[in-house]
Amino acid sequence: MVKTTNFFKILASWIGIIVISFLVHLGLHPFNVPISVHLLIQDSLFVLFIWFVNHKWYHQTFHFQRDLDAKNNVLLLIVVLAYNFYIVRAVLATSSIKHINFGKLFLPALIIAVCAGVAEEFIFRGLIFTYVWDKVTDHHIIPAAVISSLLFGMTHYINLTQQTFSMTTLQVINAFSLGLIFVAIYVRTKNLLLPMFLHFLNDFVAYFSSGGSAVEKLPHLPGIAPSALLKFMFLAIIIKSIIFIIIACVWMRKSKVKW
Questions:
Q1: Which of 251, 154, 234 lies closest to 195, judged by CA?
Q2: 3-state secondary structure at position 187
Q3: How is residue 215 annotated by DSSP?
Q4: Pairwise CA distance, residues 113 & 199, whole Å
Q5: Are 80 and 159 in contact (CB under 8 A)?
Q6: Helices assigned H by DSSP within 29-159
Q7: Domain range list for the chain
Q8: How many Cα neighbours within 13 Å face the side chain of 194?
Q9: CA atoms of 259 and 241, how far apart (whole Å)
Q10: Is residue 214 a contact partner of residue 35, using CB atoms and an 8 Å limit?
Q11: Are the CB atoms for 174 and 245 separated by under 8 Å?
Q12: What whole-number distance in Å separates Cα of residue 122 and Cα of residue 61?
């Protein structure tokens, strides 16, 4: 009963995040504000909300310790993530990269990436994962990581207000696997700054590769039909996600975690 109650506390908090996002979208949509301003307002409200519910309900500690023994592991993950962020995205953005104004996009990209990296890591790794691990799954790491990462991935369905179901589902799958990687980094290093940084890096590069658009769209590649490209992207995301899931599960083995 207690575990069920604790799980519904987490679910209620997650629904609160969705409601805040929806209300911010409704409130700002008529004013056509830049996406960077939109996310700055939204994620600031997220952090305030999480601070409030943590103070009232959860009483979780956000860890920022430095574990030197994990540096080689973190380096490996950075290499894996860098491949995803730079190589794959660069290939998909090849057709539009020449038209990107990097100077104009730098500040919005910085704001978006900092807001998302800080707010979402506080919510999904710092609070939700830690609480589920401690109060719901009896310190079984992988179930807690799956629950928190599923909620993290599903949160991206709020983007259906701006983009297609297919592209949003790609985001959800990608976010789920990235969420597991971020959990693995957090539990191995006990330092929330590291997943924050990698989350920041992902969103920073993604904003540039999209040409400054917050909406995920199929890239235009000459000679490739959109339906074929979409199937390829689904296959690539699924394969990459499977690899990330395997890496995360190996790194989250109980014998390797020092908490």
A1: 251
A2: helix
A3: S
A4: 7
A5: no
A6: 35-53, 71-82, 89-92, 102-121, 130-131, 141-155
A7: 2-256
A8: 26
A9: 26
A10: yes
A11: no
A12: 11
- pLDDT digit string, tens, across residues 147-179: 999 999 999 999 888 888 988 999 999 999 999
Q: How many CB atoms lie within 10 A of CB 109?
A: 20
Amino acid at 152: F
In whole angstroms, what is the distance from residue 113 CA to residue 41 CA? 13
53 vs 71: CA distance, rounded Å: 33
Q: Which residue has the tokens 């985001």?
A: 171
Question: Whole-angstrom Cα distance, residue 184 to residue 95?
Answer: 34
In order of 27, 63, 139, 154, 253, the CA distances from 259 in angstroms are 42, 11, 10, 28, 12
R_g over Cα of the chain: 18
pLDDT tens column, 73-129: 665 566 566 655 554 555 455 445 556 666 778 888 899 999 999 999 999 999 999
In terms of phi and psi (left: phi > 0; alpha: psi -120 to 50; beta: otherwise), the region of 151 is alpha
Distance CA 182, CA 255 (A): 18
Taking the CB of residue 57, how many other CB atoms lie within 10 A of it? 15
Query: What is d(CA 230, CA 159) in angstroms, rounded to the nearest whole number?
Result: 18
